[in-house]
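Q: What does the assembly look like in three dimensions?
Context provided by user:
Components: two
Sequences:
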Amino acid sequence: MTQHASPPRDSTGKVPSAGAPPVRRSLIAHADVRILSLLGVLAALILIGGITRPDEFLDTRNLQLVLTQASVIGVVTVGMTFVIISGGIDLSVGAIVALASVWATTVATQEYGFAGILFTAVIVGVGCGLVNGLLVAYGAMVPFIATLAMLASARGLALQITDGRTQIVTLPSVLDLGERDAYVLGVPPLVMVFAVVTIIGWLVLNRTTFGRRSVAVGGNAEAARLAGIDVRRQRLYLYLLSGLCCGIAAFLLIVLSGSGQNTNGNLYELDAIAAAIIGGTLLSGGRGTIVGSVLGVLIFTTITNIFALNNLQSDVQQIAKGAIIVAAVLVQRRTASTT
Amino acid sequence: MPELTSRRGLLFGTAAVGAGALLTGCTSNESSDEPAANGQPAAADKPGKPVTIGFAGPQADHGWLNAINDNAERRAKKYSDVTLEITEGSNDTAAQIGQIETLINKKVDVLVVLPADGKALTQVGLKAMRAGIPVVNLDRIFNTPQAYRCWIGGDNYGMGLNAGHYIGRKLKGKSGARVVELAGLDNLELTKQRTQGFDDALKNYPNITKVARQAAEFTVESGQAKMAQLLQAQSSFDALWNHDDDQGVGALRAIEQAGRDGFLMVGGAGALSAFQAIKKDDGVLKATVLYPPTMAASAIDLARALGQGKGVGGLAEFEIPASLTLYSAVVDKENVDRYMPTGFK
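A: Here is the predicted structure of the complete assembly.
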């Protein structure tokens, strides 16, 4: 599952080429080492949680809780991973989630019921992604600037729509999806969506031409162009994909919180980027895995959970979170270089 | 990419605009229910000397701040002798300073200022006072009393105190009672003050222990997330104080999702949705402690009195007070109807 999509430029021979089955000879592939070290970090966290609060932490309900809390930011991170792999960045994800969540929960939208809310959330996400993609790919704008502009205007528009008010969802069909009765075999629907998005993301990145092209564009855009890839179209699609993920995440957030608010998705961009980086995605593009990013998200969510269960306050949480990011990256780099 | 494929760009652009047009119909938030009215009677005295009041507040990105603007505007409309010059709200200190300076240059009679950051706006408050324009400082206090003629605001410490006493009385006689606190944004001093008040009140009730505290961020999303964790951490407790009704929407959602009850929840601030839940009385939310947005209406009253050189009706003084700390009343089922019109969305 942890196969690594390799760029054309830094294939050292150890790295299996994209599309091939995982190679395990005397050496374990780089990506697998990364994933293993992430799993190690996660296992260590689970150990800490299990020792400090055994009854509350090692509990089915807690597992459901952690996965549910991870699902919204997890879906965003899958989209972000694609964008970063292609050498771009999307700073607007949090703002898009906010805009999509408020647009989909206005009084007017709610009249259209479940489908209206879902449709609006997804379309607003895709629409914002389209604008980002056009600006970056065809407007030749630096992704940092284009998506920063989207961040500002999407947040502004979200504020304009809500007028600062909390829009409460009154539709039982939407709310019920977040209740325990909706769990299938103990799995919350939100977690199922997260799982499906992850699997599709993995398949697209590792098993399709689209995925290989994304890696190629991030590895070396000029080489990709010479190889016959329409780099601009590829970039457009990638921001569309990120927008789509934000739209889905916005819907999940509406179900989870039963409301839409212009403050939603606060600093999601940083959380998603941090999770992708911890997961081994190269910020300069050309390398990254969906599994790594998702593990990154799970590590963050588990940390938050353990802190909350042990009643540690925000100041301690923030300090520890920063330290853990640094530690995780250092450990990863060391294990990767000694292999 | 130096060249621009304009035709395709145009095509995509048109498609985007089309999709946008399709959706714009969905942004309407008009609902049939009336906006929160301001029920209290205006000062009973007859119209006096015309007063122009300049009002500058932060960006209304939160239900409570939105209610502040509403209250100020509605109150000003009630007086035929008051003209209100209201600025576009801003969270940017520099922008707000600019707006206030514009109001000073316009020579308004009185200024009402709710600073985005009290300390950072002290200088412009001083400038107005030196220019002979009295300043009514709303809620977030300036660094020095020289920068305002009158301060009016809420009582964060009192909010915690009253929430603690309410819970203490409700849990009277229950031995080993466990209380949980869902605080607001921990970066803010007001959150510390609320928690301090709450802790001080609980000291009067030896049967009560505060077993957990987590800080959310005044947003529904964070309220849901932190409350879900608190519920998982504490398999049973008797009472919960949540600092803010906006994040309370999320907290209530988490409580519902976890299928938990058997405890008493007290909110904070005074949102309409909280009042409605208290009135319905079918959930855990039994009361909320006010941080009244009506203070903006009172600030207009004070500014008018200042402009006309009068005192406050009902008090013996010839002048308005220098400082006015509002009471954080506890709203529960008994008195919720009275406060309902002041609830904000």
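Follow-up: Chain B touches chain A through 61 residues (CB under 8 Å).
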